[in-house]
Amino acid sequence: MLKQILAGSTFLLLLAIGSLPAHSQTPATEPTEPSAQPAPPAQPQPAAEVSSEEIERFARAIAQLQSIQQETQTELLQIVEGQGLTPDRFNEIAEAQQNPEAAPETEISEAELQSFEQAANEITTVRQQTQARFQEAVQSEGLEVEQFNQILAAVQQDPALQQEVEQILRESEPAPAQ
After folding, report:
1. For 32-78, what is each residue's pLDDT tens digit?
2. Has residue 36 been placed in a domain?
3. Disulfide check for 115: which of 28, 83, 94, 176 has CB 3.0–4.6 Å away?
4. H or E stretch including 71?
5. Count of domains in the chain?
6. 56 CB-near residues (< 8 Å, 6+ apart)
7. Whole-number Å distance between alpha carbons of 143 and 93
8. Which class for 72: exposed (0-12), middle (13-18), buried (19 or more C-beta within 10 A)?
9. What are phi and psi of 171, to 5 degrees?
10. By C-alpha distance, which of 53, 2, 57 is closest to 10?
11. Any domain includes 127
12. Where are the beta strands (DSSP E) in the chain?
């Protein structure tokens, strides 16, 4: 569970903040923005010492980021479908836009291109709003974005920290309704 959260959070943080290398596992149904390219990986830094309090704050921030991520994915899907495109077709057109040699399976109509451009513009706006929401979520837990990213790197490298974060997340999950 944590690895999925970390992967998704890492992907969205990359789009939002652009400071860590991508290790994303985005679902095939999530449309991608043609210009959304993560920043090149920085030189790996040694894992920083992370206090229990920082891990607690980090885990709470991760829970918020996961919620924001789910909301954003739903919103992006609605944008694409609202323009009359399927996520697969949107991604196919995006690929053709980025790489002219990657010809789509079927020709792109003018109407599809207009729908794609409208959706891409709306997606850009949503991603900018998501960036601000991510920063607010991290900061609401008493962490700076850079500090969050350092803890994220340490958690990704240290299985013991991963287990600690997973435990905190499990304990903070609401009990299932019966």
Report:
1. 443 333 333 444 444 568 899 999 999 999 999 999 999 999 999 99
2. no
3. 83
4. helix 52-82
5. 1
6. 168
7. 38
8. buried
9. -70, -25
10. 2
11. yes
12. none
pLDDT of residue 20: 28
Report whether pLDDT(111) > 90.
yes
Which amino acid is present at 61? A
Structural domain range at position 67 = 2-18+59-172
Residue 87, both tokens: 């996520």
Banded pLDDT at 25 (limits 50, 70, 90):
very low
Q: Pull the structure tokens for residue 29.
A: 């149904």
For residue 106, what is the DSSP state?
A: S
Residue 23 in domain = no
Amino acid letter, 28: A
Q: How far apart are CA 51 and CA 32, in angstroms?
A: 36
Judge whether 22 and 14 are in contact, CB under 8 Å.
Answer: yes
Count of other CB atoms within 10 angstroms of residue 101 = 5
Which amino acid type is present at position 100? P
Residues whose CB falls within 8 Å of the CB of residue 127, separated by 6 or more in sequence, listed in order: 15, 16, 33, 36, 72
C-alpha 162 chain-centroid distance: 19
Residue 26 domain flag: no
Round to whole Å and give the CA distance between 47 and 155: 8
DSSP symbol at 114: H
> What is the rounded CA–CA span in Å between residue 162 and residue 152?
10
